């Protein structure tokens, strides 16, 4: 049983805080308030992750040097964070994390004109309404594990590099055409049926795992793409991949594929995940993956007929791909 009070925990941690540091980490103290905590005025980073806060301490709004504020994993609702919209002194904030709280809407953070990272994942947000007020300086936006149904109010984020909207209720990919600097797009665990990347050409990582896709078409123009995750969909044919010459990782596991196609030009491919499909034979796989014969280090084909019915399955793959280090879960030197 833990007999420490919040204050005693703070006194113990104060040994590590010498007063000259500009970073204060109060992670996992289970604090219900900050009343008993000394908050130095010169802080640039304040981490309040994993506490029990329901309202924000007004002294935070006076930290004029603050660049990073994490309120992850607290008990903050919409009313609990409302006051942040009036905190002029910390308008230079660059990173704001409100992940894993009780928010039902995007809070008003329009005051932060230099914001680079904004995280409201793991809340109860039903709409992206309010993002229009978020600074166009933003580089990373995280709104995963909410109840969002529409991709909206994102078109002004011309500097955005990472967009995370996984585990929502999205049905359509839209309003991406102005995000020309986007490098990572995470849309796993939604209800998307059709790929529409609106001509994005700089994107390097895309996840559409656990959606309702039946086709791979739509990635043809994403020539910079390095990682593509399409597992747990209803895709029956490998197609639209031949232009993705920079692709290093392709995960098309748990689909309805019957053959390996359209990747013979992918000379950079290192990881190929095709397990849990309906690929009947290893015949022709050498030609299908010819471009990456030397590069390929990992291949997953377990739970396909070709893996179950080929007596020398592993030996055949090792012979085709001389630099393989892993076949399914078997790792070798």
UniProtKB/TrEMBL annotation:
Statement: the UniProt record of this protein carries the keyword ATP-binding: no
Keywords tagged on the record: Leucine-rich repeat, Repeat
Top-rank taxon, per record: Eukaryota
GO CC, any one term: cytoplasm
Pfam name, any one: LRR_4
Keyword Chloroplast: no
Protein known as: Protein phosphatase 1 regulatory inhibitor subunit PPP1R7-like
Organism the protein comes from: Vitis vinifera (Grape)
């Amino acid at each position: 049983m833990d007999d420490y009070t919040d204050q005693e925990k703070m006194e113990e941690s104060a040994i590590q805080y010498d007063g000259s540091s500009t970073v204060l980490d109060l992670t996992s103290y289970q604090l219900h308030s900050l009343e008993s905590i000394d908050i130095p005025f010169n802080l640039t980073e304040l981490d309040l992750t994993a506490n029990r806060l329901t309202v924000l301490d007004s002294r935070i709004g006076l930290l004029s040097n603050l660049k990073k504020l994490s309120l992850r994993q607290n008990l903050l609702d919409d009313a609990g964070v409302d006051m942040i919209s009036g905190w002029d002194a910390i308008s230079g904030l660059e990173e704001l994390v409100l992940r894993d709280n009780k928010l039902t809407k995007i809070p008003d953070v329009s005051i932060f004109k230099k914001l680079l990272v904004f995280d409201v994942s793991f809340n109860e947000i039903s709409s992206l309404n309010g993002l229009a007020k978020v600074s166009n300086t933003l580089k990373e936006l995280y709104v995963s594990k909410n109840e969002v149904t529409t991709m909206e109010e994102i078109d002004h984020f011309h500097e955005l590099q990472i967009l995370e909207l996984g585990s929502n209720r999205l049905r359509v990919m839209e309003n991406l055409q102005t995000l020309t600097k986007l490098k990572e797009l995470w849309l796993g665990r939604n209800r998307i049926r059709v790929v529409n990347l609106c001509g994005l050409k700089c994107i390097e990582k895309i996840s559409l795992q656990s959606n309702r896709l039946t086709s791979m078409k739509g990635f043809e123009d994403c020539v910079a793409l390095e990682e593509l995750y399409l597992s747990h969909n209803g895709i029956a044919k490998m197609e639209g991949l031949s232009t993705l010459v920079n692709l290093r990782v392709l995960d098309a596991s748990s689909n309805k594929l019957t053959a390996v196609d359209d990747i013979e030009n992918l000379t950079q491919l290192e990881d190929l995940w095709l397990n849990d499909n309906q690929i009947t034979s290893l015949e022709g796989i050498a030609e299908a993956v010819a471009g990456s014969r030397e590069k390929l280090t990992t291949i997953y084909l377990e739970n396909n007929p070709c893996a179950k019915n080929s007596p020398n399955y592993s030996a055949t793959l090792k012979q085709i791909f001389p630099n393989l280090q892993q076949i399914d879960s078997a790792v070798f030197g």
